[in-house]
Amino acid sequence: MKIRVLIADDNSFIREGMKIILNTFGEFEVLATVNDGQEAVDYCRINEVDVALLDVRMPNMNGVEATKILTEETGTKPLILTTFDDDEYILDAIRYGAKGYLLKNNDPERIRDAIKSVHSGNNVLQDVVLDKLKSVMDGLPAAQGKRTEAGAPQKHGGARQAGVQEAGGKGASATAGSAAGRGTAGASAASAAQAKGGPSSDCPFDRSVFTERELEVMSLIAQGLSNKEISKELFISEGTTANYITSILNKTALSHRTQIAIYYLTGKVR
């Protein structure tokens, strides 16, 4: 069965171009293309849409506002696809339930993979998102108002896909981001020190709730590693890694590993 997709963008060239691209893969059915967030919400309220690709800046209702309503009122999974990486949009999109946040300058294959991953219940985040969250932990203003436009060069690695262990025991795979993105910003070093039991006066949450192994897993999630990479790093099976993630989710009352990364870096659960 094909994945039913809605495309919302106020640029007709981008809307129709994205529709053509997705239809070439044969895995998607583009149900409609709309001009703004309000039209996207109206359509998804009366039609069964699996994934909605939402631009951020649109008239009447932007993509972040539409994300909030779609998450609360429909079964549609919002995936933000935009030319901008503004801090306010990233944080709000995650807070309101976006299942992914990608820049439009990704390759068509990466966008295809992101849609499939979101449809499967995973979360997909651009490298820049976790980098900004790391800078928040360091107390630095993320991005200094900088924007990344479509067509601008990207670091190798593109998007990070975060897999979640479902309650039914179904494991989800993940695609790693760039090695450079994982090792940058002082938060990585601080995270690693905390996870290995090292002292840190900046830890934003109560570590006593978690085992040392759970803290290690949380640290590696915050660095953007997939379940497979975490297993390799810690010399444990992927099933064991998934079990640790499930335990962490239960202890924090969080619902997916993107929230674990945010919690580990900021101490915030929402």
Summarize the structure.
The protein is α/β, with parallel strands linked by helices and 270 residues long. It has helices at residues 12-25, 37-46, 63-73, 87-95, 108-119, 127-137, 179-183, 187-195, 212-222, 227-234, 238-252, 257-266; strands at residues 3-8, 28-34, 51-54, 77-82, 100-103, 123-126, 159-162. The protein has a seven-stranded mixed β-sheet with strand order 2-1-3-4-5-6-7, with helices on both faces.
Description:
The chain is of the alpha/beta class and 270 residues long. It contains twelve helices and seven strands. The protein is globular and about 50 Å long. 46% of the residues are buried. Strand 3 (51-54), helix 3 (63-73) and strand 4 (77-82) form a beta-alpha-beta unit. It has a seven-stranded mixed beta sheet with strand order 2-1-3-4-5-6-7, with helices on both faces.
CATH class type of the largest domain: Alpha Beta
**Mean pLDDT reading:** 75
Kindly provide the radius of gyration, computed on alpha-carbon positions and rounded to a whole number of angstroms.
18 Å
Which consecutive residue ranges, at least 5 long each, have pLDDT under 50? Answer: 140-201
What is the number of beta strands? Answer: 7
CATH architecture of the largest domain, by name, is: 3-Layer(aba) Sandwich
Q: Summarize the main sheet.
A: 7 strands, mixed
Q: Which structural class do the helices and strands define?
A: alpha/beta
Integer tally of domains: 2
Strand-residue proportion = 5-15%
How widely separated are the two ends?
34 Å
Give the fraction of residues assigned to helices.
40-55%
